[in-house]
Amino acid sequence: MADGIDIVPAGPAHAQVLSALHARAFADPALSGPAWDAASFLSLLSTPCVEGFILTVEGVPRALSLWRHVLDEGELLTIGTDPAVRSRGLGRTLLRHGLTHLAARGVVRCFLEVAVTNTAAAGLYASCGFQNAGRRRGYYQHGGVSIDATVMGIDLKLGQIG
Ligand SMILES: CC(C)(COP(=O)(O)OP(=O)(O)OC[C@H]1O[C@@H](n2cnc3c(N)ncnc32)[C@H](O)[C@@H]1OP(=O)(O)O)[C@@H](O)C(=O)NCCC(=O)NCCS
User: Fold this and answer.
1) In the chain, at which end, N or C, are there fewer CB atoms within 10 A of the end residue's CB?
2) To test ligand 1's pocket by mutation, which of 94, 124, 132 has the most ligand atoms within 8 angstroms of CB?
3) In which order are the strands placed within the sheet that holds 5-10?
4) For the whole model, what pTM was predicted?
5) Cβ 19 under 6 angstroms from ligand 1
6) Ligand 1 atom at minimum distance from 126 CA
7) Catalytic (active-site) positions
8) Given this model, what pLDDT does residue 162 score?
9) Mean pLDDT per segment of 10 residues, for the chain of length 162 residues?
10) CA 129 to chain centre
């Protein structure tokens, strides 16, 4: 991959690295919910249908993604980029990589939820081909505030990855 960028699969052994990266990426819980601790990553990555990826730049972990897939349906559980290296295309590189990986595994449709206030993430998803598929009222709860989520979906069978 170009510019010292590499994407490696993440397993239970990466739980600590993932939680540290997640804490940096999800420092604003009002936008995307609280950061996940190492125990959560350990538990998720011990589940057969969950797969994670770490994007490194010059060997330094800079972005992460976590996916769940069951039969032909996939879900993006989380994605985040270290604030120090945002707006350089790393999130899109990781998102495209994950979608391509899921498509190769037979997933035909992938969904995600994004807070209606999270314009950066919604912009990223739209730029990769996700389309609005619905709305979940009060999906995120933070500090007594309830935030709706937009459900977005992409049809991988139709080659919609942008
Ligand atoms: C969302 C996030 C992963 C984007 O990561 P990134 O590496 O900065 O994204 P990229 O540089 O690959 O941007 C790709 C596209 O996303 C959109 N985008 C990224 N940041 C944006 C912003 N601040 N405002 C609007 N659109 C934005 C743009 O369409 C951009 O394409 P462009 O650069 O050609 O305009 C990052 O902002 C982040 O980690 N946010 C906190 C965690 C989070 O909210 N995760 C998602 C939870 S649902």
Assistant:
1) N
2) 124
3) 5-10, 50-57, 60-70, 73-81, 109-115, 145-155, 131-142
4) 0.96
5) no
6) 29
7) 113, 125
8) 80
9) 90 97 90 89 96 97 98 97 97 97 96 96 97 95 89 88 79
10) 15
Q: Which residue in this structure is represented by tokens 């993440």?
A: 10
Closest protein CA for atom 37 of ligand 1: 120
Q: What is the CA radius of gyration of the chain?
A: 15
Q: Which contacts of 115-122 are long-range, i.e. CB under 8 A and separated by 24 or more positions?
A: 115/31, 115/32, 115/33, 115/139, 115/140, 115/147, 115/148, 115/149, 115/150, 116/147, 116/148, 116/149, 116/150, 117/30, 117/31, 117/147, 118/31, 118/32, 120/86, 121/31, 121/32, 121/79, 122/150, 122/152
pLDDT tens digits for range 123-139: 999 999 999 999 999 99
32 lines ligand 1 (CB under 6 A): yes
Whether ligand 1 lies within 6 angstroms of the CB of 150 is answered as: no
Which residue, judged by its Cα, is nearest atom 27 of ligand 1?
A: 120
